[in-house]
Amino acid sequence: MAKSIKLSKINPEAPKGFEKEATIKKTKELVTKIGELSEKLYAEKKHNLLIVFQGMDASGKDGVTKNVMLKIPAVVIDAHSFKKPSEEEFAHDFLWRVNQYSPAKGQIKIFIRSHYEDILIQRVHNWIDDKKVKQRMKSINAYETTLAQDNNTTILKFYLHLSHERQLEKLDERLTDPTKQWKHNPADYEESKLWDQYMKCYEYAINESEIPWHIVPSNQRWYRNYFVAQIVHDTLKKLKPEYPLLPHDGKTKS
Hints:
Elements: H1 20-44, E1 48-55, H2 61-68, E2 77-81, H3 87-90, H4 96-99, E3 108-112, H5 121-124, H6 130-150, E4 153-161, H7 164-176, H8 186-192, H9 195-208, E5 213-217, H10 221-239
Parallel strand pairs: 1-3, 1-4, 2-3, 4-5
């Protein structure tokens, strides 16, 4: 049995030995390679990729998407941010709104927040009970397994792990930095007070998942971006996408 993940035991700081400028340079190289591989993925249309970003407010879900997916052609990638369900979405099962955004072959889909919100914020605020949480976790595992087995979907799930202190610093930046004030939401501070409850719910979701999570040290943006870029690059490389060639049937010029 796999060892349970305890988030408080995982360092949210960049590991020793990583130099900032060198790591940023390496990230740029990886981002370019990701763009090249993703174009081949789209052309070949054998595989697809679903990337899930979860994390507390200000953990960098938008930032890592913008910085790591920068070179992916627009036709290949699509990002969807899951907000509070609409009335129509509330009238259906919780996965109804998620299914329609699942990636087609050749696509890369980004979920900025995801189906996991329905066992995170709803559980923290006691809008659902533990029995419902277990039922939904079972459904989430089935949904992800179906994508993987039925449509050649590779699923990468990233939990952006930052310290509570760093989160509060970044929330405060939204009050003072003119380029970030549009992100300010007073409710984020109220949710931050529930940090311990959120950590317990995240640990449950991570430990009960059949498809494993990557825990991303996120106190430094530059290392967070590198960590994600390395995994996305390596995953695409393992899929070995290639441009499809015209058949040599004697009628096509070589």
